[in-house]
Write a structure and sequence with these properties.
The protein contains twelve helices and 14 strands. The protein is of the alpha/beta class. Strands 1-9-8-5-4-2-3 form a seven-stranded mixed beta sheet, with helices on both faces. It has a three-stranded antiparallel beta sheet with strand order 7-6-12, with no helix packed on it. It has a two-stranded antiparallel ribbon with strand order 10-11. Strand 2, helix 5 and strand 3 form a beta-alpha-beta unit. The longest helix has 22 residues.
């Protein structure tokens, strides 16, 4: 490992995300794609959206894909396509981002929470069945941080209780469960293209994939005012369309996604090696999983002190996520209390996301790991 003090002396700054590096690498391809959109004069539901939908569906091995306004809207419209609404219940996890719950609320349904496993941070399948009632209509497994949820058990439960599965794959582009891409197991899979995602746009964007043609046709209507043709609405719908210029950028980036995923996995392996003898808990990858490391999340009971220590030395970190859903003021109405989800509650006070993106250098990774090791030898 490089000498940490000499690196720090060079005032190295390592941000937790750095989207400029990716743009600089793709500048020629992206600028050409943007110019083509501007010259076409078509900015809404044009050729780039149609082609990206085909390309992304093919990438995942899905039958259909529908580009929408965001990952949140992907989840919302997926639930609406299943006629889930007022009086229905949807099961998901308390450690997810608020948008997962916002989508359920927007559909008019009630969120029912199930705690997660202590290693993958995905839904604990052993705890789902006791939360199923005659009001339960769907399960939203969240493929958290890029690690798949245990889909085989979830699908068995869904089949036994006649439930829909809407996969929240917003952090899991290209992740696999038993060799098959997540997002293609359930009735629908939902992805976000927020700029920091493994496949990110330059603004908001999302997509729903499905193998069900009936659901596909409903999604096509739902994203565009419920229209079957211009000015003719068959059902109540919304304005939630993937922008043409975002689709153009995503078409460029999709070609690089596998290369970027491989690099993320290389970085994760290097972190694992460098921090193997440390006292922090490192991410796991189950035997049946292909983790795409949207985030590299460690756990330590000295999280806040470590975060400050790294920040003071030029290393950016983040917490995904500091407040579980049932502790959010907006969702007190769900009726949960402290202690209901002990794994999620403990994790919220201990997790820390380290820098991980394909453009990170080996020197930067070694610096981050070296500072963590250095911190553990302090009395702070």
């Amino acid at each position: 490992m490089r000498n940490i003090k000499s690196i720090i002396g060079n005032n190295m700054k390592i941000p937790v995300f750095d989207l400029k590096r990716q743009y600089e690498y793709l500048k020629t391809e992206l600028d050409s794609a943007f110019t083509n959109v501007f010259e076409s004069g078509n900015f809404v539901l044009g050729e780039n959206v149609r082609l990206f939908e085909e390309e992304f569906a093919n990438y995942l091995g899905a039958g259909f894909a529908v580009g929408v306004g965001s990952g949140t809207e992907a989840l919302h419209l997926a639930l609406k396509a299943c006629d889930i609404g007022l009086g229905d219940e949807v099961i998901t996890v308390p450690n997810t981002a608020v948008p997962t719950i916002s989508a359920i609320s927007s559909a008019g349904a009630r969120t029912v929470l199930v705690d997660v496993t202590p290693d993958t941070y995905t839904i604990d399948t052993k705890k789902i069945e006791k939360k199923i009632t005659n009001k339960t209509k769907a399960i939203i497994p969240v493929h958290f941080y890029g690690h798949p949820a245990e889909m085989e058990q979830i699908m068995k439960l869904a089949e036994a209780h006649n439930l829909r599965i809407v996969e929240d794959a917003c952090q899991a582009h290209g992740a696999q469960y038993n060799g098959k891409n997540v997002g293609t197991y359930g009735d629908m899979g939902c992805f976000s293209f927020y700029p920091t995602k493994n496949l990110g746009a330059y603004g908001d964007g999302g997509i729903v994939v499905t193998n069900n043609e009936e659901l596909y046709n409903r999604l096509i209507m739902l994203r565009n005012y419920g229209e079957v043709k211009k000015f003719t609405s068959k059902i109540e719908g919304f304005n939630s369309r993937l922008d043409e210029i975002q689709a153009a950028a995503l078409r460029v980036k999709l070609k690089h996604l596998d290369t970027w995923t491989n690099r993320r996995r290389e970085i994760a392996t290097l972190y694992q090696q460098l921090l193997f003898n440390s006292n922090v808990q490192l991410p796991c990858e189950r035997q049946w999983a292909k983790h795409v490391y949207h985030l590299f999340v460690i756990r330590t009971n000295r999280r806040d002190a470590l975060k400050d220590y790294l920040q003071e030395r030029g290393v950016g970190t983040h917490i995904h996520y500091p407040i579980p859903i049932h502790f959010q003021e907006a969702y007190e109405k769900l009726g949960y209390k402290a202690g209901d989800f002990p794994i999620s509650e403990r994790n919220a006070g201990e997790i820390l996301s380290l820098p991980i993106y394909p453009e990170l250098t080996t020197e930067e990774i070694e610096t981050v790991a070296g500072l963590i090791t250095e911190f553990q030898n302090t009395d702070l």
